[in-house]
Amino acid sequence: MAARAPDRPAVKIPCGRTRGGIDYLSLTFAELDAEVDAWVARFSARGITRGDRVLVMVRQGLPLIAAAFALFKHGAVPVVIDPGMGLKSFLACVARTRPSALLGIPFAQLISRLCWQPFASVKTRLWVSGSPTARITRPGQIINRKSDIVNCTADELAAILFTSGSTGAPKGVRYEHGMFDAQVRLVRDTYGIEPGEVDLPMLPIFALFNPALGMTTVVPELDPSRPATVDPAKIVQAIRQENITNSFGSPTLWRKIAGHCAAQNITLPSLRRVLMAGAPVPPALFAGMQKILPNGTAHSPYGATEALPLCTITADEVNGRQGKELQHPTSNIQSHPAPSAPVGGWSLELGTSAATAAGRGTCVGRPVAELAVKIIAITDGPIASLADARELPAGEIGEIIVSGPVVTREYDQMPEATALSKIVNRKSDIVNAASSIWHRMGDVGYLDAAGRLWFCGRMAERVETSSGPLYTEQVEPVFNVHPDVRRTALIGLGERGKQRAALVVEPLSREVVATPSLRRKLVRELRTHGAAHPHTDRVRLVFLHPALPVDVRHNAKLHRLALAHWANRHHGYEMDRRDIPSEALKR
């Protein structure tokens, strides 16, 4: 991009406000390229060489973007660990990864001294300013002697990125250069992204895609460690001022932004696409987004740290505006009789949202190009070979496995986790063929007759009752439509196979939690909702919680396993059929 469009803005970082507008430090692609070369020279001077692991503890902004691309150019391996996972887990990840260098802000350097044992492998320390606008070149400076790009192979280690650890221990995912190349290609082609577009990435790691895609990066005014505290007015102002065309963020962030726009009667005409990921996107949020995107579309990509992107779906398909007929997902659901739903053809005029509300799961769309998806019988232990897995027909719920050029092959220093999460396709003749490794997503779901994938929940969070399994994304949406409910969490109490299903509910108003009469009223109404479907009729125990715990990265993933431990120490509300109005029973 520095060669093709040297004067085009590459990155803009907020640095203040004047006359109501946002001031930005702006660097062109030529200036960003010079900044990267200056970082490469710094790495060389400090003895960092190809293959060295460099722990990156830098805030979002210019230093993060420039240093990350300098590490790639130099052939070093950035190690990125989400600090939101908590100090204990963070330090365990550092110790296991054994970085040889630390690239960090002063606070990170202090942590590494105070908690010195996990950082014992660090031999080189490079200090980085805590300011997001800090640069090591002068404005307009172009480096005459450019550093060479290390000629890495496609299967060479490029980076180690850690999972959030929302349903288990965080794991370091080994990314190869060929995988990053494939990611850039598939993201560009799937969403029709063009050079010259302007992106507002509300997850810092996604800012690293933009220079490779030719997009200008506008750094948002938000704290990545506390995304739920974002001021939506600031995000909206940046979108309108900078004519943002693309933005990625969690459903939690976009719910706040869409709510602000609706309250202020604002639309965002410059946006061509909004990508929402990190947790299932409720149909109501898709509908709200389309009201504020007169010239754009809301999308939800499905994937994981180990494999991204895999599938994608648009607001049109969720809420039904295309009018194209598709066969309704088959009713041969393994976990329970099919919830009540319209019979016969399922039209996109209705969309997938009606099926979600009826407890069929959340449709995450069709696989993107070059990706393959299979559903296999649920197995908690390792599966050595694809021949050992039993593939399920359309409509049956099972474990989701995926294969393709963006699917990572192993975890770092965790052979047991790799054995548990990867399946080898021994029929492949080529060692590095994209189809030689299948990744177990840790999710359950099914494929419908139209080839769309339906997500039913995390495998570790399924509830195994004596009457059969229950899945979070087939239970929670049935209750989430209640107007006084913010969100719910399905949990299992007791021994697996004999668990009792329970629902933890976060009301919209904390007054409900504090008022006995309002609590009882809400529980009675939830019982009516549950009785409408055979599988949710089995949920007879409800707990009320003032604020369900969520992950820091997306502020959207519920910590259901932690909630199960919480419920064991609290009293819930028993629900029986006497709580259901007689007219509801007749229906």
Describe the model.
Helix content is 28%, strand content 25%. It is of the alpha/beta class and 587 residues long. It folds into four domains: 1-151, 3-Layer(aba) Sandwich (Rossmann fold), CATH 3.40.50.980; 201-208 and 220-234 and 242-301, Rossmann fold; 348-461, Luciferase, Domain 3 (Luciferase, domain 3, Roll), CATH 2.30.38; 463-586, GMP Synthetase, Chain A, domain 3 (2-Layer Sandwich). Strands 1, 2, 9, 10, 11, 12, 13, 14, 17, 18, 19, 20, 21 and 22 form a 14-stranded mixed sheet that branches. Strand 11, helix 8 (251-264) and strand 12 (273-276) form a beta-alpha-beta unit. The longest helix is centred in the N-terminal third of the chain and has 17 residues, at 29-45. The protein is globular, with a radius of gyration of 25 Å. The termini are far apart.
Topology:
Blueprint: E1 9-18, E2 21-28, H1 29-45, E3 53-57, H2 62-74, E4 77-80, H3 87-97, E5 101-104, H4 106-114, E6 124-127, E7 157-162, E8 172-176, H5 177-191, E9 198-201, H6 209-213, E10 216-218, H7 232-241, E11 246-249, H8 251-264, E12 273-276, H9 283-292, E13 297-304, E14 307-314, H10 315-319, E15 325-326, E16 346-347, H11 353-357, E17 362-367, E18 372-376, E19 398-403, H12 415-421, E20 422-424, E21 437-447, E22 453-458, E23 463-465, E24 468-470, H13 472-480, E25 485-493, E26 500-507, H14 510-514, H15 516-531, E27 541-544, H16 560-567, E28 573-574, H17 582-586
Parallel strand pairs: 1-10, 3-4, 3-5, 4-7, 5-6, 9-10, 9-11, 11-12, 12-13, 26-27
Antiparallel strand pairs: 1-2, 7-8, 13-14, 14-17, 15-16, 17-22, 18-19, 19-21, 20-21, 21-22, 23-24, 25-26, 27-28
